[in-house]
From TrEMBL:
GO MF, one annotated term: catalytic activity
InterPro entries: CAT-like_dom_sf (IPR023213), Condensation_dom (IPR001242)
Designated name of the protein: Non-ribosomal peptide synthetase
Species whose genome carries this gene: Pseudoalteromonas citrea
Highest taxon above the source species: Bacteria
Gene3D superfamilies linked: Chloramphenicol acetyltransferase-like domain (3.30.559.10), Nonribosomal peptide synthetase, condensation domain (3.30.559.30)
Residue span(s) of domain Condensation: 11-362
Amino acid sequence: PAADLNEQRVAGHGPVEPIQSSFFKKEMVERSHLNQAVMLHSDQALDEVALNAAISTLIETHDALRMRYYQDEVGTWHQEYTPHSEQLVEHTKWVHEVGVADIEQYAQQAQQSLDITHGPIMRVVQMRVTDGTYRVLLVIHHLVVDGVSWRILLDDLAIAYEQAIEGKALTLALKSHSYQYWAERVREYPNQFAAEFAYWSEQVTQPLQLPNLNAQGSKLALHRAAISVNLDKVRTESLLHEAPKVYRTQINDLLLSALSEALYQWLGQSEVSINLEGHGREPWEQGVDLSRTVGWFTTLYPIVLQRMPSLADTIIANKENLRAIPNKGIGYSAFKFNGSEAEQTQLQQSSLSQIEFNYLGQF
């Protein structure tokens, strides 16, 4: 039973998740450099022995931090779990005395030091800064971490460090189902929900014709631009708590309806296909627990937004479309990378939209 697998010991090879397959299909200059990082700051001196013990416990507990990736003879990517060892921990951690002006340089070096095949897939840099403060930089390849994972890791790091400082045994909360187990379940999804493919085949549409799009433009991250818009407290409270009461909606229904109106005004199209991004931790089976599992779970799937003559009808139409998505969208990528040959071909030959929507929630 699924519930019996909570404390499974993970080792050996395993299948990659659909979001990882999507990553490996993209052309990249250096695959090992797609990482996420968090810099921790302390005005108090850090206990290096306690920090080493906490990092070791973190790597031992969370199997994804010991992952390695390789291609077989036909070019298919696989992931492999390496065993925990003190040598692995030592290979992960750097200690530096740095000036304030040098912090960014060392952070850049740490980000460039990851290697998804030979390791490390995580780099921890302890910095003793000349101004008397301390830093701990955690750099982890995106293949094994996402936004939810960071909350788990930072909480566990704080708990383990505190236990080590107090001389206690390092004991973290029980593990949930492994990333390996989840990847195996997702691989079986197309067989379990074969009839669902018809839904996803209807969601695939032609790419948008965006005005003034430069098809030869750079796709490098350093050339991107960003626009931020902030709502005041009153409007935020109204959007989160008052507006949903009228049509019994969720925040996504309202934001996506607003997006459909904006796209109509820009493109003149009443139906537009976009991509929805979700956290992907959406078990369809009773007893599956991913609450403490570290890994990259993100889902990305297409949905058609509708703009109706009235705002009320637009909200209702998009609300109904969102409720019709089977199993929170997990199936699209499952069929795209684990379905039959014909299913994979159909979905992979269809381009996803150039517009992605991701509601991160409330923090």
